[in-house]
Structures are given as C-alpha cells and as structure tokens.
Fold this protein.
Amino acid sequence: MAGLRDRQKARRREAIMAAAARLFEERGFEQAAMEEIAAAAELSVATVYNYFRSKGDICLAIYRADRDLVQAATDRVIANPPADPVDAVCRLMEADFDTELAFIDAGAWEALIAAAFAAQPRLAAAFVDDSLMRVQQFSRLLEVLQKRGAVAASTDIPSAAELLAGLNLWHFINGMMRLRKGGRVAGRKLLDAPAKRAIRRQVRQLVDGL
C-alpha cells in the first residue's frame, strides 16, 4: 500500500509540474495563478499547496528534476566515454540535450529562465547551480580522459570545463531561439544536425588548440 501511495504522490507531483510548465509558457510566470495550475492538473487548490507552497517552488522542482535526469545521463557517459576526446565531449553534450523532461519544451524553459532573472532569486540560484553542475560534469569527463592519456597532463581542466559548459549553454540558448523562430513542430530538438556538426567543429578547435 505504501508503494501505491508513493506512486500516486509522484504522479500528482508531476501533473502539477506539467500543468505549471504549460501555463508558464502560455501566460508567463507572473500571470499564471496557483488556482489555474490546480485546475489544469485536475486537482484541488489545497492539494497543490500540499505539494508546493508557491509557483517558485514548482519552478525549483522542475529545475531539479531536469538536473537530476541530465546528471544521470551524463554520468553514464563519464563512466565509459569514447576514447577520442572530441567524441567523448560531443557524446556528453548530446546526452545533456537529448535528456528532457517529458512535460517541458523550449517555450516553457524560456518562461522559467525569464522568471529566474526577473524576480525570482531562488530560481536564478538554481539556474547557476545547473550551470555549475555541467562544469563539474565536463571536468569529471576530462579527468577520466586525462588518466587514459587522451588529454595532455598539462591541460588546465577547470578552464577547459568552464569553456565547454559555456559552449553548452550557448547551444541551449541558440536552440531555443531556433525553435521559437521555426514554431512548434513535433519532434524538433534543441540540438539538431547542423548544431551537432557545429559542436564537433568547436570542440575539435578547443582540443587542437589555437
């Protein structure tokens, strides 16, 4: 019975996050009300407040759920990366971009990021934490490659990891803008084939040096 209750709670929690993500995209963070989120999730307002104290808490939950999924996916790459450092870095980035919460898309991320930098310090902190997590993942990957001899012992891994995380963020923002320009099309991804080719060129330049 406890397992059933836990699954029910998890389903309700996800339903609330999914409903909030849709409303944030459609109406914006400030305009969406908790009452509307409850109605969209087909739950009572009291039930929603049992799970989340505010819209900000819902946003934080979305950030953390995405972060946990991405970290698990990139952990698998770090555990057994390709031998070639360019392949390894590209694989890590693709694992990041290909790992998505089922209920959120680029439009919803725009709303969350806008809220983070407009009026929600806790969301801004979560955004920064996400970015630092990615720096850490790139650093861990480079350390594995360095131990294998695929990356030079003299490599400044912290700096390289920061550059790669910055490139990752640039492609995230660029992907969101591309999807906005092209409109909603089922199956379109933040990282398309041209973006993947661009990442490979950019990572190759970083690995080869200037």
The radius of gyration is 19 Å.
